[in-house]
């Protein structure tokens, strides 16, 4: 399930050639006054990732999302991280969710529903996914609150903004709930791995029809 989804890309005006409709490698870009982001996704990939956002911990989480989601994922982002990482994290979620939503198309044949609990040492997080076409997020993850050390440090509260942007753009229902945990890094990483594994299961094609009595998702 490879894809091509694009918004107007200022680089194309400068003569850079983006992949065409017949290419197996697909990419999408989004530019604002605050961020410039490019995302490449292959939902049927092998979990190969290359992510560079200027936020090392966020890169690590995107790597986990691609690897455990079974997606080839490349993300390149530059943003006003000197002001705040919020714009980069949220805008990455918007673009990545848009790409995934376009990849799923009419969602014909997908399993649609999936859930899993994923541990990381003392942390345990549950993720539940419905490829419903209706954006909704329930986020009940409460790490101790300190920033995750790095250069620059990462505020774990930003992951809620990422998931809300991602689910809204993808058109999915997403529940993420912390069962237990102490270490902030472990809690956040377990939540990303849980969503990745749930998505990997939900997008699996196991039939031919749209999994809804409405006939559409």
Descriptive report:
By secondary structure, the chain is of the alpha/beta class. The chain has a single domain, classed as Imidazole glycerol phosphate dehydratase, domain 1 (Ribosomal Protein S5, domain 2), CATH 3.30.230.40. It is built from four helices and eight strands; from the N terminus they run βββαβαβββαβα. The protein has helices at residues 56-69, 86-104, 158-170, 184-202; strands at 28-31, 35-42, 49-52, 72-79, 113-120, 123-130, 136-140, 173-180. The strands form two sheets. Strands 1-2-4-3 form a four-stranded mixed sheet, covered by helices on one side. It has a four-stranded mixed sheet with strand order 5-6-8-7. A hairpin with a 3-residue loop joins strand 1 and strand 2 (35-42). Helix 1 packs parallel to helix 4 and helix 2 (86-104) packs parallel to helix 3. It is globular. The relative contact order is 0.18.
Which features characterize this protein?
4 helices, 8 strands, four-stranded mixed sheet, 217 residues, alpha/beta, disordered N terminus, Ribosomal Protein S5, domain 2
């Amino acid at each position: 399930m490879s894809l091509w989804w694009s918004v107007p890309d200022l680089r194309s005006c400068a003569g850079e050639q983006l992949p065409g409709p017949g290419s197996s490698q697909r990419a999408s870009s989004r530019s604002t006054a605050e961020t410039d982001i490019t995302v490449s996704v292959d939902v049927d990939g092998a979990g190969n990732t290359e992510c560079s956002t200027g936020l090392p911990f966020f890169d690590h989480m995107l790597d986990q999302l691609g690897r455990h989601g079974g997606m080839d994922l490349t993300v390149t982002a530059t943003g006003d991280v000197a002001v705040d990482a919020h714009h980069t994290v949220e805008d990455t979620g918007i673009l990545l969710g848009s790409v995934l939503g376009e990849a799923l198309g009419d969602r014909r044949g997908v399993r649609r529903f999936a859930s899993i609990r994923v541990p990381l040492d003392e942390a345990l997080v549950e993720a539940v996914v419905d490829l419903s076409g209706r954006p909704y997020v329930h986020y009940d993850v409460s790490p101790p609150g300190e920033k995750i050390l790095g250069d620059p440090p990462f505020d774990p509260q930003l992951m809620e903004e990422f998931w809300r942007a991602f689910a809204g753009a993808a058109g999915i229902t997403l529940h993420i709930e912390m069962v237990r945990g102490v270490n902030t890094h472990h809690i956040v990483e377990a939540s990303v791995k849980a969503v990745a594994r749930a998505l990997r299961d939900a997008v699996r094609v196991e039939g031919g029809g749209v999994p809804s009595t409405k006939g559409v998702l």
